[in-house]
Design goal:
Helix content: under 10%
Mean pLDDT: 95
Structural class: mainly beta
Oligomer: single chain
Number of helices: 0
Largest sheet: 7 strands, mixed
Order of helices and strands: EEEEEEEEEEE
Strand content: over 45%
Length: about 120
């Protein structure tokens, strides 16, 4: 069982990145997926999530209108499209898969996003 996050990098303010989270060893369609981030010296915070039943989404206020979470169950992949990036978006981004109604919970290894000029 593995979640592999990728797509991070260095980008200038106002730029875009697309993060990917690929699931292996389990069926992604049965899991709600969340993206979290942790900046140096700060607690990990939830950024966005997408349900597994109706694809409803949730975003933290600080990223609403700029980030979009989506999923492709056939490819076992969840995406986080990040536009209009700001320096305060700099963090390590993690994906998480949680099966509804259970304690089954998987974390990816994290991908670094740095927004700087």
């Amino acid at each position: 069982v593995q979640l592999q996050a990728s797509g991070g990098g260095l980008v200038q303010p106002g730029g875009s990145l697309r993060l990917s989270c690929v699931a292996s060893g389990f069926t992604l369609e049965y899991y709600a997926i969340g993206w979290f981030r942790q900046a140096p010296g700060k607690e990990r915070e939830g950024v966005a999530c997408i349900s597994n039943n109706d694809d409803s989404t949730y975003y933290v206020d600080s990223v609403k209108g700029r980030f979009t979470i989506s999923r492709d169950n056939a490819k076992g992949t969840v995406y986080l499209q990040m536009n209009s990036l700001k320096p305060e978006d700099t963090a390590v981004y993690y994906c998480n898969a949680k099966r509804s109604g259970t304690i089954i919970n998987y974390w990816g290894q994290g991908t670094q996003v740095t927004v700087s000029s």
